[in-house]
Amino acid sequence: MTAATLPFAEPAPRLSPVTGLLNTFTLTWRSVLKIRTNMEDVVGLSLQPIMFLLLFTYVFGGAIAHSTHGYLQYALPGLLVMTVVFATLGTGLMLNQDITGGVFDRFRTLPIARWAPLGGAVLGDMVRYMISVAITLGFAMILGFRIETNPVSAITACVLLLTFALAMCWVSALIGMLVKTPQGVQMFGFLVMFPLVFGSNLLVPAGTMPGWLQSFVKVNPMTELTTAVRGLLVGGPVGTAALHSLLWALGIFLVFAPLAVRAYRRRT
Predict the structure, then answer these.
(1) Per-residue model confidence as pLDDT tens digits over 58-80
(2) Among 66, 106, 157, 250, which is most buried by a count of CB atoms within 10 Å?
(3) How far apart, in Å, are the Cα atoms of 261 and each of 178, 207, 228?
(4) pTM
């Protein structure tokens, strides 16, 4: 029996919103279990943040800040942002693998909400983002990073990071729906993420950049997010940057979530 001849369940509109949410939470748990059983994903979530911290702190710290500790205090908030943003690529990658592997064809035969598999995949990946944040912050503190504000501010910084990641994962989901292969998801994902991540104040002050690049940095949402997280962790202005970050997250979600859902419906 092929995907084209599989029997279809009752259409999703017959299901109540509560049932759809329960379906979504069930598939969210499926995504969480996949993290535990996929050792490659576990190793990637663990080693990538550690590698970023070691390389950027000890390769660039002395040259940029003349002190590895001083640079770690400056760069850690940006490295948190970079780690979480790159982690969102996993959303599109796993969605693409599930679709090309026929998993979503099997979901269509079940009496569940049509959008539940997509919502479950996105919510399940929030666990991956929390793991990335915890490992990055924990290992940075082993290297000598210290939070200079208070626990409430630190928790707020993590919540802000995860909120922005939830918005960015819809960009990744859209790429995963539009591209045919997992390799294509990685290629196009990095093409989108690299300019945003490195064309910002994540790793160096914007004032050291040429004027044309500073113009891009000023309108880059990663700049606002990094400024807000930096202020919440080590002190500095927070209010305006945090508000702009939330507005960017809302705007990205409102644009890319409907596009991802539409592409998902067409492809499945």
Answers:
(1) 887 777 777 788 888 888 998 99
(2) 157
(3) 11, 40, 30
(4) 0.81
